[in-house]
């Protein structure tokens, strides 16, 4: 099928452009050169492509994709960029899609793969580039963790705790896979936590329990790795809420695996918070060896108190170059003592010991923690970002940033986080008011922190001498309502930065994909809501704390029943024919980048490859063709090689 593209012809040394659809026929006119564009199917895997293996794109949680060459402020607009296709799935997609190029699928060859996890306890692997052939339309593989015939189903929101009918509408329908998986690229393994409801063995099979398991799947087949899955369980000494015999046990019915998984130092870290704040519950962080699947770390945020969930608006725990793990906790008990054991509403720096435990190496708790707890103003609605040393100062070279419901952006020294001061927060590097709550994470690019809070403009704050400037460097002209949005950034090194986010729209249950010029947030490059007609099935359906994935010229967005794929429409943008010589120069946009081939034909039947084109710095491509004397009418098209 031909894409909607310009039709060009040459007449009396002039170039004329007609905007109309190219069909499967040519129009051959005397003394005219007709140029067409075809969008054909295929896939080619390129060495060096981007991988998106974890939540917010890296373990520091900066949100940056640093080597995107095709999506630029020039190419991302309504003329060239838009929704390409969608792949249906069996439930809402709360987890961020992940991307791995060049996966060898048995019997299906090499594919760039996007992994999609759903609330219906499924993981799908789709061809990331196409859905227009029998090979690519269906999932490359699909793994389900339920077995209805054996009574193993997905818990609903009505039985998500260990007593029924406590639905608080945090989710709708089912609660299966919530947290973003993580991929070990070297081992070819995807780790994911699935929650199921299943009967006890006979004779107690009329009694149902909830179980949470960590699965390790082969990225090429979806088959469980050896030692997988493992049932998530833990206990720690403590006298806190729900304790028994001076121990607090992990309760899979009360805990939701909301934050993204973290893979660091050969350990998969899994965080938990509550469903609907229904006590008793605690915040947990469990660690499992990525090869043996044995538990190697356990941490409870309030073993002698209550609450303190690790949820962070879906953000994953962060890690620095020394393998210290950082997270933020929600409302909960905090000990105002020199050596606390309960850490509600706190930033935590955790270190793994040799005794299968995580210990607090450092922490920061705001002076008004008690008021935060009482007012349901979770610090832990947001997550922590490990900032590069380039923005630090001589006094504070290693910085950490994060914000929560209290509308304060905290900048901390990772070497001395500040602990607790009952009078104020003067012991930390900086606390910057940002007006309203944050859910999730800011993003970092070009010495600036990009922040989106509820009901506010998207803002970029620049660093000067290790501090954030109070006046934004730039801000958007529109806002993000409800729970705000989580920005992600694509760029090619320091150039061509684009801020991407999925935000609510005026239409209930409809979200939009927005793109902004990172150097000028007032310049909105793209808005899917305004480019699609009202009621269009292509519009994005609502999923809370949604985050796009940007990889190799495409953007992947989860919805309530699909993953939508956005990208560049292949186009011939321009033509220049040199008088006398007949040399033709084409300007192109190629979704597959340098892999797309220009082909030439004299009859629209027989086609010859003549080159891939030369990339320009703005994401477009140039192709030059020098015809031989007497060659006559020539047709051109773009194809994606098989």
Q: Any idea what the radius of gyration is?
A: 26 Å
Kindly report the average pLDDT value: 87
Enumerate the spans where pLDDT stays under 50 for 5 or more consecutive residues: 1-47
Number of strand segments: 48
Number of helices: 3
Anisotropy-based shape: globular
Percent of residues in helices: under 10%
Q: What distance lies between the first and last C-alpha atoms, to the nearest angstrom?
A: 16 Å
Characterization of the model:
The chain has 3 helices and 48 strands. The strands form 12 sheets. Strands 3, 34, 35, 36, 37 and 38 form a 6-stranded mixed beta sheet that branches. The chain has 642 residues and is mostly beta strands. It has a domain at 4-39 and 571-639. The longest helix has 6 residues, at 369-374. It is globular. Helices cover 2% and strands 40% of the residues.
Entry summary:
The chain is an all-beta fold and 642 residues long. It has a domain at 4-39 and 571-639.
């Amino acid at each position: 099928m031909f894409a909607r593209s310009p039709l060009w012809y040459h007449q009396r040394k002039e170039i004329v452009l007609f905007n109309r659809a190219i069909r499967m026929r040519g129009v051959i006119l005397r003394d005219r050169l007709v140029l067409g564009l075809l969008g054909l199917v295929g896939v080619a895997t390129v060495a060096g492509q981007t991988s998106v293996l974890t939540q917010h794109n890296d373990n520091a949680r900066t949100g940056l994709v640093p080597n995107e060459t095709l999506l630029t402020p020039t190419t991302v607009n309504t003329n060239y960029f838009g929704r390409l296709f969608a792949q249906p799935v069996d439930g809402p997609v709360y987890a961020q899609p992940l991307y791995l190029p060049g996966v060898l699928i048995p019997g299906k060859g090499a594919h760039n793969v996007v992994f999609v996890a759903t609330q219906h306890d499924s993981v799908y692997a789709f061809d990331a580039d196409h859905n227009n052939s029998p090979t690519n339309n269906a999932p490359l593989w699909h793994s389900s963790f339920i077995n209805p015939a054996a009574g193993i189903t997905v818990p609903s929101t009505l039985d998500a705790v260990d007593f029924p009918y406590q639905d608080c509408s945090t989710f709708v329908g089912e609660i299966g896979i919530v947290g973003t998986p993580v991929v070990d690229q070297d081992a070819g393994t995807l780790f994911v936590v699935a929650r199921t409801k299943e009967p006890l063995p006979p004779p107690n099979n009329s009694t149902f329990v909830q179980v949470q398991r960590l699965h390790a799947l082969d990225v090429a087949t979806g088959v469980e790795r050896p030692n997988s899955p493992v049932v998530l369980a833990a206990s720690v000494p403590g006298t806190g809420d729900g304790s028994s015999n001076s121990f607090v046990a992990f309760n899979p019915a009360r805990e939701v695996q909301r934050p993204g998984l973290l893979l660091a130092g050969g350990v998969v870290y899994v965080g938990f918070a509550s469903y609907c704040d229904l006590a008793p519950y605690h915040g947990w962080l469990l660690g499992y060896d990525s090869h043996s699947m044995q538990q190697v770390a356990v941490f409870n945020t309030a073993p002698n108190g209550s609450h303190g969930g690790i949820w962070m608006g879906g953000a994953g725990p962060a890690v620095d170059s020394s393998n210290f793990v950082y997270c933020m906790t929600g409302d909960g008990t905090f000990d105002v003592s020199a050596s606390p054991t309960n850490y509600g509403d706190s930033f935590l720096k955790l270190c793994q010991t040799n005794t299968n435990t995580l210990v607090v190496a450092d922490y920061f708790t705001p002076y008004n923690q008690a008021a935060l707890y009482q007012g349901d103003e979770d610090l832990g609605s947001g997550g922590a970002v490990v900032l590069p040393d380039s923005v630090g100062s001589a006094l504070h070279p290693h910085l950490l940033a994060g914000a929560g419901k209290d509308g304060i952006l905290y900048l901390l020294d990772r070497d001395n986080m500040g602990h607790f001061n009952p009078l104020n927060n003067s012991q930390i590097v900086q606390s910057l008011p940002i007006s309203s709550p944050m859910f999730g994470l800011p993003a970092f690019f070009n010495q600036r922190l990009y922040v989106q809070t509820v009901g506010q403009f998207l803002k970029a704050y620049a660093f000067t001498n290790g501090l954030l400037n109070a006046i934004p460097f730039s801000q958007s002209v529109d806002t993000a309502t409800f729970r705000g949005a989580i920005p992600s950034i694509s760029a090619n090194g320091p150039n061509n930065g684009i801020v991407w986010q999925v935000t609510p729209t005026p239409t209930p249950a409809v979200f939009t994909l927005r793109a902004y010029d990172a150097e000028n947030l007032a310049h909105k490059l793209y808005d899917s809501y305004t480019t699609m007609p009202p009621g269009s099935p292509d519009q994005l359906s609502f999923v809370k704390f949604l985050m796009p994935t940007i990889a190799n010229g495409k953007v992947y967005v989860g919805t309530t029943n699909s993953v939508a794929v956005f990208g560049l429409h292949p186009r011939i943008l321009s033509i220049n024919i040199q008088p006398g010589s007949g040399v033709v120069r084409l300007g192109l946009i190629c979704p597959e980048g340098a892999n797309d081939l220009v082909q030439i034909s004299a009859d629209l039947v027989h086609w010859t490859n003549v080159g891939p084109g030369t990339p320009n710095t703005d994401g477009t491509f140039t192709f030059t063709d020098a015809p031989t004397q007497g060659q006559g009418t020539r047709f051109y098209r773009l194809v994606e090689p098989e």
